[in-house]
Amino acid sequence: MNVTVAVDCMGGDHGPSVTVPAVLAFLRGHPGAHAILVGREEVLTPLAGEALAAPGGRLRIHPASQVVGMDEPPKSAVRAKKDSSMRVAIDLVKRGEAQAAVSAGNTGALMAIARFVLKTLPGIDRPAICFALPTVKGHAYALDLGANPECTAEHLLQFGIMGAMLASALDHIERPTVGLLNVGAEEIKGNELTKQAAELLRQSSLNYYGYVEGDDIYKGRTEVVVCDGFVGNVALKTSEGLAKMLTTFLREEFMRSPFSKLMGLMARPVLRRFRHRIDPGRYNGAVLLGLRGVVLKSHGSADAFAFEQALARAADAASNRLIERIGDKMAALAGANGECA
Fold first, then answer.
1. CB 102 within 8 A of CB 5
2. Closest CA to 106 of 231, 232, 13, 40
3. Burial code of 25-64, b = ≥16 C-beta within 10 A, e = fewer?
4. Inter-residue contact 142 to 232 (CB < 8 Å)
5. What 8-state DSSP symbol labels residue 121?
6. Cα 162 from Cα 156, distance rounded (Å)
7. How far, in Å, are 124, 129, 288 from residue 120 at the CA level?
8. What does the alpha-carbon distance between residue 167 and residue 322 come to, in Å, rounded to a whole number?
9. Do 130 and 314 form a contact (C-beta atoms < 8 A)?
10. Which of 182, 196, 242, 317 is most solvent-facing, going by the fewest CB within 10 Å?
11. Are 255 and 168 contacting, i.e. CB atoms less than 8 angstroms apart?
12. pTM recorded for the entire structure
């Protein structure tokens, strides 16, 4: 894995206290990878320590004097924070010094900066946020999860292409199945936008499965689930809330009486495995698809383990030519449309 990842070390709820240890763990687990720590040098140098002087030059610091706040308006981040750690990390991708950028910072600012600096791929109108959700069969990639609340049928087709290429690159699935999120599986159900998108997906060269309902996501019915950003964000936040509620209910029931506490001790190995399977940290790292470069958004509250997963996902996407795959697929689609015309 000869990939260099630029890391916005100052972003997120915890900043360098999480991002730097995560980078060091990532480098230990990926011997061929390199990383660039972006941020305030006086803060990063003590945390990186001896790793900066290790043979091979796999880790270095690129200074950045500004930080994008978690509640900062995207326009302000683009116009007034040209030397922010977020902007500099993405600039490194633009210049080819890094093949991927990862940040736990402000999502809106990250999308705005990445789109402004990198631009979108030919044939892609809008970038989309794609996240891996756990399923009974492993995981499914869902998009868009908040970047585009209002979409056209053509946008949903583009999301399907980008999601399929992501599944192909990261999971090595030759023709991943693509489902369109709807209020029912029957062809007559759905609004006009959904029906138009279904027809475009059906006519494309994608392995289109058809409509999927909300519960089908976690059944693992398809490898990719397509929806607009409004529906996707609601589905994501609802799922996160449900997972937290179930965990809270389990804890309360096991603490209800001395006997239930004893049962809880006996069930601890099972509960540990259960917690591991639904741990959002294992799936951390939402990909901003459709850009001319690999950019991943880590959850703002991610711990070092979760941030390390985002780094690994970014390196995998870059080393498996995600951008080229999407570009080739969009070019093939444009060629097919030209022939039909």
1. yes
2. 13
3. bbbeebeebbbbbbbbeebbeebbeebeeeeeebbebbeb
4. yes
5. P
6. 10
7. 6, 13, 10
8. 9
9. no
10. 242
11. no
12. 0.89
Which amino acid, residue 260?
S
> Cα(222)–Cα(178) distance, rounded to whole angstroms?
6
139-194 pLDDT, tens per residue?
Answer: 999 999 999 999 999 999 999 999 999 999 999 999 999 999 999 988 889 999 99
DSSP assignment string, 137-202: TEEEEEE-SSS-SS--HHHHHHHHHHHHHHHHHHH--SS-EEEEE-S-SSTT-S-HHHHHHHHHHH
Round to whole Å and give the CA distance between 62 and 84.
11
Token pair 């990939």 is found at 3
Query: Domains (ranges, CATH) in the chain?
Result: 4-122+290-321 (3.40.718.10), 128-280 (3.40.718.10)
Side-by-side strand order, sheet with 177-181: 59-63, 34-39, 4-8, 100-103, 294-297, 286-289, 128-135, 138-143, 224-226, 177-181, 207-212
Q: Over 60: is that where the pLDDT of 340 sits?
A: no
The owner of tokens 């690159």 is 169
Mean pLDDT of 200-204: 94
